[in-house]
Specification:
The chain is built from eight helices and no strands.
Length: 156
């Protein structure tokens, strides 16, 4: 076996070094850009973007500022949202109400813990309005398919 007597150096040779240098330059740029886009998508104004949330906020603030009865002022935002969506289900259809429920939970994550109970209530109401077969056709995976669960429990 013959060994070379010339020393091997790694300075500037090979495709691995080129790839490493490219990643060292590109990766921070991509991270900064994606972080900027993420921050730009956040609603920093404090006002809800969903029309259902806006109605819920108006109902809650209106009840508390006008000196209405203590029962109306004590209504939680998720109760107002549920009632608003139930009315919307009657006027439009369950699909629209479920879309607005998902938007409300996305816009205000504190509503997530109430999402399943609201979706079940929508499912039960949909059975009363549309019947079990038609109500089930509106089901979608909002809040772990709780809408479908509400349809099933109301029908069964």
């Amino acid at each position: 076996m013959k060994h070379s007597t010339t020393p091997q150096t790694r300075s500037g040779r090979g495709p691995g070094r080129r790839v490493g240098r490219t990643l060292a330059f590109v990766l921070p740029v991509v991270l900064v850009f994606s972080g900027t886009l993420a921050v730009a998508r956040v609603n920093w104004s404090g006002s809800p973007t969903s029309p259902v949330l806006a109605a819920a906020d108006t109902a809650v603030s209106g009840a508390s500022s006008s000196g209405a009865s203590s029962r109306a002022a004590a209504r939680a935002p998720h109760e107002v949202l549920r009632d608003t969506l139930l009315v919307e289900l009657q006027k439009e259809n369950p699909g629209v109400a479920l879309t607005h429920l998902q938007q409300a939970v996305n816009d205000r994550p504190s509503l997530a813990r109430h999402c399943a109970s609201i979706a079940r209530a929508l499912g039960k109401a949909a059975v009363q309005v549309y019947g079990p077969t038609k109500a089930q056709s509106f089901a979608r995976p909002v809040c772990d398919t709780s809408f479908a669960s509400g349809v099933l429990t109301s029908h069964g």
